[in-house]
Design a protein that fits this description.
The protein is α+β, with helices and mostly antiparallel strands. The chain is built from 10 helices and 12 strands. It has a 4-stranded mixed β-sheet with strand order 10-9-8-11. The chain is globular, with a radius of gyration of 21 Å. Bound molecules: fe (ii) ion. The site of fe (ii) ion has 4 residues, from helix 6.
Length: 409
């Protein structure tokens, strides 16, 4: 029995590790070394950092493991104060050595050691799963960061060749009534969850209505054409400041050529597809749009109770041959993350994981907003109804969109 379980675990481990390499393989060694902004990391760094995570939290504690290179503990620790000093995040693109090929050898070294550890059945299961879900989380970051990097190239290069979708059409906007009351929020059961998804608890929600689909590019264009980015009345004060500071006039990656709206995608620059969900908007923009539309963003509790009512409906998740949302449909998980109005805070009774990995989520619960769902850069198997993604209110490089809500009539 044990051998079947460990074989499955080794397969799961190797499967996750292989997807990282598949996605990174879309990039050249030169692509993999570059860092387009302090928030983004080089692809090569993501490949190494996810590997370091297994080394630091699973292999080193065995006392039997020989590290690949002691300097990697400094180079590839992200933010774990308990582990020790680390290279500054904003300067990751300056670490030209080790090169991409060397990172591949590092990954192979750790894969071998991890396969042996998993086969022996000696690895703490919770930490193994955390390491795998951590790597999946970085697969999404890898896609986001690669897209941002290539968007800064003057000729909008293609990450993945793909025919344009034909006739993408969104359902007409409609509203779904959701009954309020005392509801259960958060993850329950044996499956993996991050610590921030629990404990499950009760929350009180008034009756409300939620849109039957995400806001589309066509919807957003009406906001732009109505002077949405020039009219302060729709914006939070900080949001209006961001509009001035960054010169926002449309979502990230939108452009205009010869009167035609265009958008940079992982398959190069394309005409804007009106039926796709709008993507790469900040919380500030999502909030302003909702006010313009006479609605509001859902709270994360409203989002969760509404999503429970559409089980099984999934939009696009990470497919290395696509890396792009599909048409806005009834699904609440997939295509684009959806901003909620909720600040990213601990749930009642929240307890971080013990040890250094307790720094994983808890210490970021300040000045960020929760996004729900999943996106076309989220690897299959990583999506969860109770998943709490989070970004600062001005961030736009995630695959982030929105869905409207409003109070019950
Ligand atoms: Fe990480």
């Amino acid at each position: 029995m044990t051998s079947t379980i460990t074989t499955d675990l080794v397969d799961q481990f190797l499967g996750v590790r292989a997807l990282t390499e598949n996605v990174a393989g879309l990039l050249s060694a030169e692509d993999q070394a570059a860092q387009s902004m302090p928030d983004a990391s080089p692809a090569k760094w993501h490949r190494a950092h996810t590997t370091w995570f297994f080394e630091e939290f699973l292999l080193d504690p065995t006392g039997q493991y020989t590290s690949y290179d002691a300097s990697y503990r400094y180079l590839f620790n992200s933010y774990y104060e308990a582990v020790g000093p680390r290279h500054p995040r904003a300067q990751r693109g300056l670490v030209t050595r080790p090169n991409a090929a060397e990172i591949g050898r590092y990954r192979a070294h750790v894969d071998d050691a991890m396969a042996a550890l998993l086969t022996n059945g000696d690895a703490p299961p919770a930490l193994v799963q955390l390491g795998l879900h951590h790597e999946q989380q970085h697969q999404e970051l890898l896609v986001m960061d690669a897209k941002h990097l290539l968007s800064r190239h003057p000729f909008a290069p293609v990450l993945v060749e793909r025919d344009a979708d034909s006739g993408t059409e969104a359902a007409p906007l409609g509203w779904r009534e959701v009954e309020g009351g005392l509801i259960s929020i958060g993850h329950e059961g044996d499956g993996f969850r991050f610590d921030n998804e629990g404990p499950q608890h009760q929350a009180f929600v008034l009756p409300f209505e939620i849109a039957n689909r995400a806001v589309t590019n066509a919807d957003w264009l009406a906001f732009v054409d109505d002077g949405g980015y020039q009219r302060a009345e729709f914006w939070l004060s900080d949001g209006w400041h961001a509009v001035q500071q960054y010169g926002w006039q449309a979502p990230e990656y939108w452009s205009q050529r010869d009167g035609e709206r265009r958008v940079f995608t992982c398959s190069g620059e394309r005409p804007l597809d009106p039926g796709e969900p709008v993507c790469h908007v900040s919380f500030y923009e999502a909030d302003a749009y909702a006010r313009w539309a006479g609605a509001r963003l859902p709270t994360e509790q409203e989002w969760e109770v509404a999503a429970r009512a559409v089980p099984g409906a999934l939009g696009a998740l990470l497919d290395p041959a696509r890396l792009h949302p599909g048409a806005a449909g009834r699904q609440m998980i997939g295509d684009v993350w959806e901003w909620t109005s909720s600040a990213y805070l601990p749930y009642p009774g929240f307890a971080p994981m013990p040890g250094a990995v307790g720094e994983y989520n808890g210490k970021f619960m300040c000045d960020q907003h929760v996004l729900r769902g999943a996106s076309c850069a989220t690897p299959p198997g990583h999506e969860r109804l109770t998943y709490r993604n989070f970004f600062p209110a001005s961030a736009r490089w995630a695959f982030s969109g929105l869905r409207l809500a409003r109070n019950a009539a």
